[in-house]
């Protein structure tokens, strides 16, 4: 390696050791491979170690210093010139340059602050030998106890002056004045740890052990880690293992399953590093170089070496532990956009760019240096274009024949990305981590290429994972070093191993490639890559690289970075890679060109001449002529048989059932999820969707431009009935009308979409849902396209769905629906992660969530079927087909003579003469694969028809498919058959295949047996008339012109569907699909979406029920164990969970592992049964040695049924033992038939049963099996998933998994038009949910410029999400066959969304008749005319007050008696219900009008400003103002708080200097303004911050008004959050537990106080006090709409009138009432409660003098002396009405106005919960427990005393007033209050106030007396006016027991009432809660 030293090793010994080291390391499981040089020098080092140990001096420190000095070099030490100190600084020894003392003796007792992660150490100064200088050093740069794991470099602080951040020990030694004469080294001068003793003094501790670190530091100046292991795969490419744990590597050359033996690696003794400068008794002048390079050549292989994990070498400036290295390879940019970057980097080396990569390299690469000439005829000589991948450094110019090479920069980009650290890893805290070096990248790449098999293609994902794991292991190693707090218990592993240098790289790369049999060739250059490329071209021309697949060219120079490139010279690999660079359009053009120009004719003629008998076409024609008559009659009989059977009334197949449209539990769950997300968008504060403003739903479904998909969507839409349900169409629905709602994304789409946009703009109250189905199709940007401009559909999705009109329309919601959402989940996506809906899982913790009788078979289930122990795999590849394609693709006829032709001949079953040579023109591999497969199908059809010699020209798999297809219709009495999907992506090739197969079918007279359909996405379905008639019979269609338009309508039709098109476009397939042949899919374009959507064609729902077919099979095995075939048995087994074949023999498990025909030859009797796997006799019998199937079928049905029952009983007893018992016999039989003859197909009638053999079996066996085989093939197909055939390359990727079980395909690039954000991304896990995968892709993928989301960038991130865009992802092909899929789900979503919108525009309002109508006095006298608009004051004063309560909400309240009344007690009691407490009141659903009040969920543009979303005012701009006034009744000053938004401050008056709130502005009585409401509105509320109807903007019709919410103090914050622009009146905290009475009381008192303030203020302005408006409005928080009655009195008679009721605005009602003449003379004004049952009699009198509720106008001036009871919880409005009336004030109800009250289930009185005070557990407490005896041990309750009182009296007042129960003629006398005593007790209200209006009590005898908190107006003489029944009861209620006794004495109650001590009670409150006390007595 360029080192010269004495005693140099011999070359042979050197190479031998190196080779052995590499081999041992490849097989080693040890974490630390043994260094190569340690093997070479181990004996010498041990000798030196013993010499060193023998001569060690006593003075350890001196010896170490000498050793340090001597180890630097064998030459004399160079004197060190110290940097002169700055001027003016201190230079005294022991002091730092700042003049601070650092000596230990001086500062040992001082407090020294040590930063976290630092240690105090003692440094020795040459000038102060007796002192230690105290230093603070980062412990990462100090060794552990074993002398290891010290990082290179230095980081320290000065403890004297406190200066921090010394990154170099040289700089630090200068600062502390060490004054060294030699090079400063931390190992030499940092000697001791410093510790605190018991007294806290700093003392010298243990010696710093630099021994191990010395050895490490001399190995390398930049560390590597050897703990990374990359698991090598057994058969496929490098495993995509995501585990960071070390894994043993498998030997690529060893057989699978061979246990590798790990080579034991000995640790190098640490003393070996410290040998003296003696080598074999002589000094070695270069020994230090040997030491420094010791272990430098540690194997940097796949097994182990990672790159730099420590700090850089000292020559790199500017590095510190806190900052990353500044070396050039450290690149923090993600995905640097190089000038030559290819825009469409694929997911692999095989998914490179497209057309941009094809052509001159000079146009792609930035060339430099001398040009390289590409030889002429390179393509002709090599048969493939070499693909050159630019690696590191500069790439030379190419000139000459540059069209024969392809140059790509993908590898260059991969290298650059792998050297840029991701932001996610920078946060770990280890800034010392280095990126992977270029040398290590290239070496890892070589190791990766070495282990690739000859049929494998390198993947970029593999390389990225290798680099990623390498870097992560290095990263973890660093973290371990930082956490070295205690010695490790495991064997110490050197954490840093020398990196690979540029000089060693070519040699190590060549060594690695030496064992790969020339597959990888290394070319080393001395000057530039041009030299190596020229040599490579020379070797290619000379034919010396025939066996070489990869050429690695390395130009390693010591003075600069390396240059490298990798050339793909393997013909297969180069072909795959070059073809993958074609765009889909170029790919089609290339194939079409080859077809048009006739280049494929030689290939066609070659296939035609394969048969020894002559040309295949001639053979077909001969066969047709010979067998025309026989075949025609036979086939016509078999085909027409079902019709004849049906016509004669015989039994026909009943398996064909037309499934009706029904909603599955899955679909309903998804639809509900979608609805939930829509509601979340509407409920958010972003105001992006106002669901309340929409009245109906409209939609448009966008589908790809596939005619079948389009018709399929129309079909689903038609049968769903959604158009009729949404009201979009009428009953007579036509197809033309349905087509308006589905848009095919083709050239005509823009016209239909323009109509859609116009409709959305013209109908703002309609919510338009834009559904983008199959949303992963065409994500091209409208501005960037790789496709030709003639393709108008390209970028159409971007132009339409992302247009400005759609984005800005507030009434358009976009729903993307796809099975592959990955391309819509990038960093620039429009869709918020919160707006993603994923298909639900069927099971959760083993519980069936949706009770589906179907089990979904998708990709994971298909992969699972390939695992050992499962049934026959559903995923397979055809090894015979792959081998023939590989042989044809090589095209080596000229160079190798007949070698390859003979190989091909063996593969296809014949021997080619050695003189035959054929050279094909260069053909695309898709052409070759297609022609081979067409040949296989043609030969298989010929073999089935009797040309037995053709069985050698096809594969077993193709033979199986063809046989089952042809015979399937013969097993069903109705002729139902199987579908075979032949996927040919290239449309021209599909046309060729169709033409060829169609011709072969015609020649074989099979045209009536099965159909061949060419499925072109741009055209409809064309099938023969005969098959159309069959379908019409099966589907009971009578339309003469009917033709199938979807693949679903082909159910039961035996056919080959040639499925063309570059990508499936959402076409669903029927249940009769049995085989999905994907052998021709483009295997070079490896991205996740492409693979999964191809496999999605076979996704299936199978019945989860247990079928009996398997049981019958098991029983047949028991009867005749030798009749076993693995090729036909699969049709009888269902690869589902719960299979009876779980316990299989080893032979069966091995079959599960071998998924191709070649490997299954030992376990298959394909030679006998490949043609009869569906158990039908062949068309032509070649022999007749067994019972004819017709004889078997002639058995009686009764016998067959009985046998079947017997067989079924047997199965349950021993099916498993049967299989295990007889399988050895099968194995033995198969082992004896491994000859060529057994590989042939015997077409005999004995093959009627798959299990038949030459020996005849018993009749029951045949009968039981015939019952099964006579079943419809379609029925069996629908009960099991299809069988899928894949290309070998795709199969390997699909079935290979990483260590977590994640399929390798899931780790691929998700989509063509996206790229990884960084190579350093965390690996995916199998345990990731759909949501976690979405978040993963959102973080780690970015769209390319060709992606439509590329321009959606915003650093704010949240702004990039479109608020009305959702994504629904579900499994592919779910809607096939059974319609259990995404289409039905989103149609159901439209249905429930429409119903919800209707529900949102409707509310449940109380609809109850007025109560107590029969008590109302019927009078013919009417005081006003029906048409009067306002009451006449004088007339109204004459109207009597109606004491009776008519509001239905008080149906359970006590009746108020006004005079002697005869009430039918039975009627009264019958109107009550038993459980009044829990009875639901009667409601009706009403549509919201435009004048409704709304809650917080309503968002519309009109009320944005009203709700506080005006940009002029921020949400937090509101001020808190205190407002105090005194009230004598409370005995203290009341202080309220107003929260006033800035936008509402104009309603208030503030003092000028201090902005103190003075008053609320009030208008004048005489003011008239149509846009202004004079009365302030107060709404008391609790618990309804979300549901309260406080948005009065629409109700007020936009009029200016003052609205105040009255809230409790503890609810202030939540109300302010939801209603930021509302004025709030906050009640004092003492009212937090009060009822509505307190709110009403404070509102009224505040309003009167404010009226006085306004009168005083405006009086100064010359306004009279009586001119100030005195009214306020008190409204419930549930008033939703208001109605007005319009009376028409235009009849002939004055009494005749008609009336109508309509919804009006609250503004109109209030302005009407405010305009009432003499309005200030009314104390209370209210309106009716709305009811649909209102009759004419109730509104004939337009005004009533009665109780008013819910919505009142209160005159605070007139009611100054009438107060609300602040203690009340219920009936406070009734109590207040009675007080107002008794005060002689007028109460007027406008009967022509009514208010609707919405039913709100939360808040209000429901917010008061009565519970125990001592227990938190919720216990039901009955009202009887609300009171107790004083001083008792009763459980106290946590509720206000007043609430307990009211609730108790409501339900148990009969205990106090027993005589009053149902005694309505003798009510209870209630003085000055109204308390609800329950519906069966009547009360009579009287006021004790002087001059009050009371009813005449003469003639009334009362059954009880209720005295509630009597004041001084109640005197004894007042009570003596009333008469009571004997035995009447008295109840006195007071605040305390003392007041109770005082009241009894003051009112002289003992004169007429008898009291007992036990008749005293209290509410069940604790003493501190101030209970109320009761005293009851009996009238004497």
What does this structure look like?
It is a single chain. It is globular and about 135 Å long. The N terminus is likely disordered. It has 56 helices and 54 strands. The protein is 30% helix and 15% strand. The chain is α/β, with parallel strands linked by helices. The strands form 12 sheets. Strands 34, 35, 38, 39, 40, 41, 42, 43, 44, 45, 46 and 47 form a 12-stranded mixed sheet that branches. An 8-stranded mixed sheet has the order 32-50-49-51-52-54-53-48. It has a 6-stranded parallel sheet with strand order 14-13-15-16-30-17, sandwiched between helices.
Count every helix, treating DSSP H or I runs of 4 or more residues as helices. Answer: 56
How far apart are the termini? 128 Å
Counted beta strands: 54
Give start-end ranges of low-pLDDT stretches.
Answer: 1-13, 27-77, 212-366, 482-496, 632-651, 785-790, 892-919, 1106-1269, 1469-1478
Spatial shape: globular
Classify the secondary structure makeup into a structural class.
alpha/beta
Beta fraction of the residues?
5-15%
State the helicity in percent bands. 25-40%
Mean pLDDT: 75
Largest sheet: 12 strands, mixed
- What Rg, in angstroms, do the CA atoms define? 47 Å
């Amino acid at each position: 390696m360029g080192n010269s030293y004495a005693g140099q090793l011999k070359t042979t010994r050197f190479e031998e050791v190196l080779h052995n080291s590499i081999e041992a390391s490849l097989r080693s499981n040890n974490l630390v491979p043994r260094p190569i040089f340690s093997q070479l020098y181990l004996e010498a080092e041990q000798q030196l170690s013993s010499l060193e140990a023998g001569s060690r001096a006593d003075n350890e420190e001196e010896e170490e210093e000498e050793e340090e000095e001597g180890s630097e070099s064998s030459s004399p030490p160079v004197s060190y010139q110290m940097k002169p100190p700055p001027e003016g600084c201190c230079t005294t020894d022991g002091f730092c340059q700042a003049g601070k003392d650092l000596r230990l003796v001086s500062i040992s007792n001082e407090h020294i602050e040590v930063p976290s992660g630092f240690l105090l150490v003692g440094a020795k100064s040459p000038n102060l030998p007796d002192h230690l200088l105290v230093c603070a050093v980062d412990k990462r740069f100090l060794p552990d106890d074993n002398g290891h794991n010290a990082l290179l470099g230095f980081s320290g602080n000065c403890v004297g002056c406190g200066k921090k951040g010394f990154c170099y020990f040289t700089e630090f030694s200068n600062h502390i004045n060490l004054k060294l004469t030699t090079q400063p080294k931390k190992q030499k001068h940092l000697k001791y740890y410093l510790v605190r003793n018991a007294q806290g003094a700093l003392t010298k501790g243990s010696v710093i052990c630099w021994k191990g670190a010395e050895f490490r530091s001399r190995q390398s100046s930049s560390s590597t880690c050897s703990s990374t292991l990359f698991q090598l795969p057994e058969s496929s490419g490098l495993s995509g293992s995501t585990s960071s744990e070390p894994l043993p590597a498998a030997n690529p050359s060893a057989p699978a399953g061979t246990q590798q033996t790990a080579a034991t690696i000995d640790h190098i003794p640490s003393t070996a590093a410290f040998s003296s400068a003696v080598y074999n008794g002589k000094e070695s002048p270069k020994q230090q170089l040997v030491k420094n390079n010791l272990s430098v050549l540690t194997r940097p292989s796949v097994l182990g070496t990672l790159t730099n994990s420590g700090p850089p070498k000292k020559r790199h400036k500017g590095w510190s532990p806190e900052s990353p290295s500044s070396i050039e390879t450290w690149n923090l940019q993600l995905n640097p956009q190089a000038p030559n970057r290819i825009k469409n980097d694929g997911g692999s080396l095989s998914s490179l760019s497209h057309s941009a990569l094809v052509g001159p390299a000079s146009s792609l690469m930035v060339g430099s240096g001398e040009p390289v000439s590409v030889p002429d005829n390179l393509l002709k000589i090599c048969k493939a274009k070499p693909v050159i991948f630019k690696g590191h450094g500069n790439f030379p110019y190419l000139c000459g024949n540059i069209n024969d090479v392809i140059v790509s920069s993908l590898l260059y980009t991969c290298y650059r990305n792998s050297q840029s650290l991701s932001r996610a890893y920078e946060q770990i805290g280890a800034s010392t981590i280095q990126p992977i070096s270029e040398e290590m990248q290239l070496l890892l790449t070589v190791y990766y290429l070495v282990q690739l098999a000859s049929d494998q293609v390198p993947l970029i994902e593999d390389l990225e994972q290798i680099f990623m794991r390498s870097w992560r292991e290095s990263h973890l190693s660093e973290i371990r070093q930082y956490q070295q707090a205690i010695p490790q218990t495991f064997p110490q592993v050197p954490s840093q191993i020398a990196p690979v240098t540029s000089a060693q790289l070519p040699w190590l790369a060549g060594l690695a490639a030496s064992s790969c049999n020339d597959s990888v060739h290394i070319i080393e250059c001395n000057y530039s890559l041009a030299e190596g490329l020229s040599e490579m071209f020379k070797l290619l021309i000379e034919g010396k690289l025939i066996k070489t697949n990869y050429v690695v060219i390395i130009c390693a120079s010591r003075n600069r970075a390396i240059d490298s490139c990798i050339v793909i010279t393997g013909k297969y690999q180069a072909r795959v890679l070059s073809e993958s660079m074609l765009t889909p359009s170029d790919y089609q053009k290339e194939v079409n060109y080859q077809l048009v120009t006739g280049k494929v004719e030689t290939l066609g003629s070659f296939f035609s001449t394969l048969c020894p008998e002559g040309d295949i076409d001639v053979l077909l024609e001969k066969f047709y002529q010979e067998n025309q008559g026989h075949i025609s009659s036979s086939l016509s009989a078999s085909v027409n048989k079902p019709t004849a059977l049906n016509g004669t009334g015989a039994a026909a197949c009943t398996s064909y059932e037309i499934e009706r449209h029904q909603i599955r539990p899955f679909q309903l769950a998804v639809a509900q999820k979608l609805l939930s997300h829509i509601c979340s968008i509407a409920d958010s504060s972003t105001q992006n969707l106002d669901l309340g403003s929409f009245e109906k739903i409209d939609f448009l479904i966008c589908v790809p431009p596939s005619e079948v998909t389009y018709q399929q969507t129309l079909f689903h839409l038609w049968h769903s009935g959604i158009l009729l349900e949404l009201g979009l169409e009428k009953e007579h629905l036509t197809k033309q009308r349905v087509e308006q709602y589905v848009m095919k994304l083709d050239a005509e789409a823009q016209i239909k979409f323009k109509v859609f946009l116009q409709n959305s703009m013209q109908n703002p109250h309609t919510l338009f849902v834009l559904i983008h189905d199959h949303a992963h199709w065409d994500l091209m940007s409208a501005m960037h396209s790789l496709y030709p401009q003639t393709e108008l559909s390209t970028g159409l999705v971007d132009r339409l769905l992302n247009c400005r009109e759609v984005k800005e329309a507030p009434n358009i919601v976009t729903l993307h629906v796809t099975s592959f959402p990955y391309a819509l989940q990038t960093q620039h996506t429009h869709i918020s992660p919160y707006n993603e809906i994923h298909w639900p899982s069927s099971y959760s913790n083993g519980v069936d969530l949706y009770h589906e009788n179907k089990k979904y078979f998708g990709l994971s289930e298909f992969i699972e079927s390939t695992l050992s122990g499962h049934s026959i795999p559903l995923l397979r590849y055809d090894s015979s087909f792959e081998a023939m394609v590989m042989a044809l693709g090589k095209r080596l006829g000229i160079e190798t003579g007949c070698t390859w032709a003979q190989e091909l001949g063996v593969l296809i079953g014949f021997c080619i003469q050695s003189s035959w040579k054929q050279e094909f023109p260069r053909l695309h591999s898709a052409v070759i694969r297609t022609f081979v497969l067409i040949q296989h199908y043609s030969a298989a059809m010929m073999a089935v028809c009797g040309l037995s010699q053709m069985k050698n020209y096809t594969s077993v798999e193709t033979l199986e498919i063809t046989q089952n297809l042809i015979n399937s219709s013969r097993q069903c009495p109705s002729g139902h058959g199987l579908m075979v999907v032949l996927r040919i992506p290239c449309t021209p090739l599909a046309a060729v295949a169709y033409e060829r197969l169609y011709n072969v079918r015609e020649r074989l007279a099979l045209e009536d047996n099965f159909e061949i359909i060419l499925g072109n996405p741009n055209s409809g379905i064309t099938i023969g008339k005969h098959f159309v008639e069959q379908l019409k019979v099966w589907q009971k269609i009578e339309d003469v012109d009917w033709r199938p338009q979807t693949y679903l309508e082909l159910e039961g039709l035996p056919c080959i569907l040639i499925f063309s098109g570059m990508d499936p476009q959402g076409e669903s397939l029927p249940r009769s699909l049995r085989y999905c042949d994907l052998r021709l899919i483009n295997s070079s374009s490896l991205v996740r979406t492409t693979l999964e959507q191809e496999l999605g064609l076979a996704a299936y729902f199978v019945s989860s029920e247990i079928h009996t077919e398997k049981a019958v099979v098991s029983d047949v095995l028991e009867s005749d164990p030798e009749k076993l075939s693995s090729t036909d048995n699969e049709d009888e087994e269902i690869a589902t969970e719960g299979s009876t074949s779980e316990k299989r023999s080893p032979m069966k498990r091995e079959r599960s592992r071998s998924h191709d025909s070649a490997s299954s030859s030992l376990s298959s009797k394909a030679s006998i049964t490949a043609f009869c796997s569906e158990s039908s006799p062949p068309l032509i019998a070649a022999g007749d040695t067994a019972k004819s199937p017709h004889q078997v079928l002639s058995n009686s049905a009764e016998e067959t049924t009985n046998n079947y029952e017997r067989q079924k009983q047997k199965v349950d007893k021993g099916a498993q033992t049967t299989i295990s018992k007889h399988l050895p016999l099968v194995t033995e039989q198969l082992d004896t038939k491994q000859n060529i003859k057994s590989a042939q197909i015997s077409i005999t009638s004995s093959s009627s049963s798959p299990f038949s053999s030459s020996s005849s079996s018993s009749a029951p066996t045949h009968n039981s099996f015939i019952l099964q085989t006579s079943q419809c093939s379609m029925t069996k197909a629908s009960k099991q998933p299809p069988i899928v055939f894949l290309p070998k390359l795709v199969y390997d990727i699909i079935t290979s998994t990483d260590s977590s079980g994640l399929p390798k395909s899931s780790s691929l690039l998700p989509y063509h038009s996206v790229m990884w954000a960084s190579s350093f991304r965390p690996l995916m896990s199998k345990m990731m949910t759909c949501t976690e995968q979405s978040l993963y892709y959102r973080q780690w993928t970015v769209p390319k410029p060709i992606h439509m989301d590329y321009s959606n960038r915003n650093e704010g991130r949240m702004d990039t999400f479109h608020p009305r865009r959702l994504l629904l992802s579900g499994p592919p092909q779910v809607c096939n066959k059974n319609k259990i899929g995404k289409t039905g789900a989103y149609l159901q979503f439209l249905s429930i969304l429409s119903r919800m919108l209707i529900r949102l525009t409707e509310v449940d309002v109380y609809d109850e008749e007025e109560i107590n109508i029969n008590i109302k006095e019927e009078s013919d006298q009417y005081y006003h005319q029906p048409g009067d608009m306002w009451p006449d004051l004088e007339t109204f004063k004459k109207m009597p007050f109606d004491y009776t309560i008519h509001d239905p909400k008080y149906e359970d309240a006590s009746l108020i008696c006004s005079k002697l009344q005869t009430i039918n007690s039975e009627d009264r009691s019958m109107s009550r219900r038993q459980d009044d407490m829990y009875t639901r009141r009667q409601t009706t659903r009403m549509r919201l009008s435009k004048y409704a009040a709304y809650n917080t969920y309503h968002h519309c543009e009109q009320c944005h400003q009203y709700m506080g979303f005006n940009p002029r005012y921020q949400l937090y701009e509101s001020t808190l103002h205190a407002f105090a006034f005194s009230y004598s009744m409370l005995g203290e000053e009341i202080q309220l708080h107003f929260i006033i938004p800035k936008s509402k401050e104009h309603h208030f008056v503030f003092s000028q200097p201090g902005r103190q709130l003075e008053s609320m502005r009030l208008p004048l009585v005489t003011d008239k303004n149509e846009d202004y409401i004079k009365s302030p509105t107060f709404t008391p509320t609790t618990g309804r911050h979300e549901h309260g109807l406080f948005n009065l903007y629409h109700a007020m019709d936009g009029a200016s008004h003052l609205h105040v919410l009255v809230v409790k103090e503890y609810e202030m914050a939540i109300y302010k959050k939801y209603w930021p622009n509302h004025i709030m009146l906050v009640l004092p905290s003492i009212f937090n537990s009060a009822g509505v009475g307190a709110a009403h009381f404070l509102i009224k008192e505040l309003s009167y106080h404010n009226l006085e303030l306004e009168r005083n203020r405006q009086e100064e302005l010359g306004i009279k006090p009586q001119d100030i408006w005195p009214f306020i409005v008190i409204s419930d928080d549930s008033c939703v709409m208001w109605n007005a009655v319009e009376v028409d009195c235009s009849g002939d008679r004055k009494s005749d009138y008609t009336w109508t009721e309509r919804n009006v605005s609250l503004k109109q009602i209030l302005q009407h009432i405010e305009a009432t003449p003499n309005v200030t003379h009314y104390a209370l004004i209210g309106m009716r409660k709305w009811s649909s049952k209102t009759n004419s009699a109730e509104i004939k009198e337009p005004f009533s003098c009665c109780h008013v509720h819910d919505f009142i106008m209160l005159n605070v001036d007139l009611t100054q002396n009438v107060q609300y009871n602040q203690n009340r919880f219920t009936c406070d409005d009734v109590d207040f009405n009675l007080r107002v009336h008794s005060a002689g004030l007028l109460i007027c109800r406008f009967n022509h106005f009514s208010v609707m009250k919405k039913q709100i289930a939360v808040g209000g009185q429901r917010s008061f919960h009565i519970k125990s005070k001592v227990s938190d557990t919720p216990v039901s407490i009955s009202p009887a427990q609300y009171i107790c005896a004083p001083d008792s041990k009763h459980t106290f309750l946590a509720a206000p005393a007043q609430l307990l009182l009211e609730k108790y009296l409501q339900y148990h007042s009969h205990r106090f007033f027993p005589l009053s129960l149902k005694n309505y003629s003798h009510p209870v006398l209630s003085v000055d209050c109204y308390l609800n005593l329950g519906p069966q007790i009547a009360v009579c209200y009287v006021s004790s106030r002087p001059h009050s209006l009371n009813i005449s009590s003469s003639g009334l005898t009362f059954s009880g007396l209720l005295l509630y908190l009597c004041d001084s107006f109640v005197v004894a003489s007042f009570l003596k006016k009333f008469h009571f029944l004997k035995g009447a009861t008295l109840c006195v209620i007071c605040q305390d027991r003392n007041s109770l006794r005082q009241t009894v004495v003051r009112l002289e109650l003992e004169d007429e009432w008898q009291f007992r001590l036990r008749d005293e009670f209290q509410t069940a409150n604790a003493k501190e809660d101030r209970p109320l006390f009761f005293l009851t007595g009996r009238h004497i």
